[in-house]
Design goal:
The chain has 131 residues and is of the alpha/beta class. The protein contains five helices and five strands; from the N terminus they run αβαβαβαββα.
Amino acid sequence: MTLTRRLVLAGLALAGAAPALPAFAFSFKPFDAKAFAAAQAAGKPILIEISAPWCPTCKVQKPILATLGAKPEFAGIMAFEVDFDSQKDILRQLRAQSQSTLIVFKGKQEAGRSVGDTNAASIEALLKKSV
């Protein structure tokens, strides 16, 4: 079963363990080349998360990204998700070789990437490179 941000937040909300996140939390969209190109052309900050439902590292990254996405400083980041198992053409385009890869862009320029990182502070530092 794929753990999506929505499922994680719903589970936490049902347990009464998480406050509602502000409206500017990341809203991951499936990677779309046209939307990605439009965001790059507009000079927007972009986050690409490459994940797989079976990946334990990806499962650890998701709540970290949900928490960071709720911070006002990251409100403008466009977030795309790439499925490691089914979107191999996009992986080649992004030169990504592994799931649990996070890539940030500042417009058309890649600003940074990480692979297998589950440290909230370093993921936050990566996101800051895009804004």
